[in-house]
Amino acid sequence: MEARAIKYCPEDSDFPNSVPGFSCKIAEVKGPFSGRPESHSNQHDLYVAISGKARVKTGKLCNKIEEISDGEYRSDEMLTEHEFTLEAGESLIIPAGVAHTLLVDSGTYVQWVYKIDI
Prior knowledge:
Blueprint: E1 22-30, E2 33-34, E3 38-40, E4 43-51, E5 53-69, E6 72-87, E7 91-94, E8 99-104, E9 108-117
Antiparallel strand pairs: 1-9, 2-8, 3-6, 4-7, 4-9, 5-6, 5-8
C-alpha cells in the first residue's frame, strides 16, 4: 500500500481502514451518560476533546468480565484508580490493558477517539 496522508473529519462516522493499525472516529455524547467500563488488550485509545466536558475513570475491570470481541473486554464494574476531566483542546492516552469509562454529567460532549494497535 502506498503511504499517504489521511484527513479525518466529523462527517466520517466510522473508523476508516486507510492506515493499518490506526483508526479514528468522532463521538458525540449527550449527558447524562455513564459508559460501561471496557479495556482493550491490543489497542491504545487516544481521546481528544473537541467541546463540552467529560470525566474519564481509569482502573481495572472486576467481577464478571466479558470478551465482546477479539481483545475487547467489558464489565459492569471497575476498580477506579484515577479520574480525569476532559475539556476542549485536552487529550488523554489510555494504554492497552487499562480499563476506562466515559461519563458526561450534562450537556453535549464531543471528542475524537483514536485507536492505535500495538
